[in-house]
Design a protein that fits this description.
344 residues; alpha+beta; 6-stranded mixed β-sheet; 8 helices; elongated
């Protein structure tokens, strides 16, 4: 395997999965259209053994290494990005997952942060620690958060007293610390079929603000997603140097070309193999033989690049997709009849 540097913008996805395993699978469906996705997840599904459901074998997760309480924040990324993503364990907690990467040549902290609606403090101490860390180290910051806070500044449609107080505190902190709310438009980020609201925010500092573009809420996915929260996507404004993984597949080697090329190389170095009467000459001949074999193999075998897209499982047929949509429709219809707290 090898790597080749090339320029490409990062595709960000932000979502609260409501701790649902099916919502994790739905995420796997959604991100198939996105090259090298970086996913900011709140309330991921965690099984009984403490393993986070990622929705696809192509994804890796960065989260709190030794949690002492339920994990409510994680960051997923494509396996091909492992060399470009560094987990920041020193500032990662159960409610705030943080990684560092380069976006358009700029060192950037990317975080997923969950804020508990029952917490008196807003923003959370984890959030404040993250902002202070970025400020102290003069580094760009991009945060995806389920704030559980209401404010007309981010187009909240319902503003109950408790969450409005949280929203006022959060807005005050954002303004005092020169932060930016990247949310664009009036589309709600939460929709359970009976009411909707905006509580999921993308927050950046001044350096991070310059790196974010094309922020949007995906409204047309209600029948394709189990979570009450909608998918949010945005792009990095510039390109980022990523490492495209590649390898030479031996099953595709042209062995006639290999034999011909190796014979030619060995003929050109015939003198090195004619008389081997010392350990030094033996070492030289062995190294030369090894390099000739590798060179001929590379000549006879084209590079195969590893796809950075999430691959669908073989059972994902058109019939399965239609059945899933029908099931989502029935679930949404049934959920409208339930009595649930409209202040979410």
């Amino acid at each position: 395997k090898g790597g080749q540097k090339f320029k490409e913008s990062l595709g960000f996805v932000q979502i609260n999965l409501n701790k649902q395993r099916q919502a994790s699978k739905d995420l796997g469906y959604f991100i198939r259209k996105i090259e090298k996705p970086l996913i900011l997840v709140q309330e991921p599904h965690v099984n009984g053994k403490g393993v986070i459901s990622k929705g696809s074998y192509c994804l890796r997760a960065s989260t709190c290494k030794n949690p002492k309480k339920p994990v409510r924040a994680s960051i997923f990324f494509h396996k091909s990005m492992e060399r470009q993503i560094w987990s920041k364990d020193s500032i990662t907690t159960e409610d705030c997952a943080v990684v560092q990467t380069k976006v358009d040549g700029t060192e950037t902290l990317v975080a997923s942060c969950y804020m508990d609606g029952n917490d008196v403090e807003c923003p959370s101490q984890d959030f404040k620690n993250l902002v202070n860390h970025a400020k102290q180290h003069n580094i760009a910051l991009i945060i995806g958060t389920d704030s559980n806070a209401h404010n007309t500044a981010w187009k909240s449609r319902i503003c109950d007293k408790k969450r409005k107080e949280r929203g006022d505190k959060l807005l005050e902190y954002i303004l005092a610390n020169d932060l930016f709310i990247e949310n664009v438009g009036n589309s709600p980020t939460f929709d359970n079929g009976r009411w909707s609201n905006s509580i999921d925010l993308t927050i950046t500092n001044r350096s991070g603000h310059k790196l974010v573009s094309d922020w949007r809420v995906h409204e047309g996915d209600r029948l394709e997603h189990s979570s009450d929260h909608r998918f949010i996507t945005f792009q990095s404004t510039g390109s980022t140097l990523l490492d495209r993984q590649n390898f030479r597949d031996i099953s595709k080697t042209n062995w006639e070309v290999f034999e011909s090329d190796l014979a030619k190389r060995m003929s050109n170095h015939a003198n090195a193999f004619s008389v081997i009467d010392s350990s030094e000459k033996l070492d030289v001949a062995a190294d030369l033989l090894s390099s000739n074999i590798i060179a001929s193999f590379n000549t006879a075998t084209e590079l195969t690049y590893v796809s950075a897209k999430v691959k669908p499982p073989p059972w994902d047929t058109a019939e399965v997709k239609d059945a899933r949509r029908e099931m989502r429709g029935r679930i949404r219809k049934a959920s409208k009849k339930k009595n649930r707290d409209p202040t979410l």
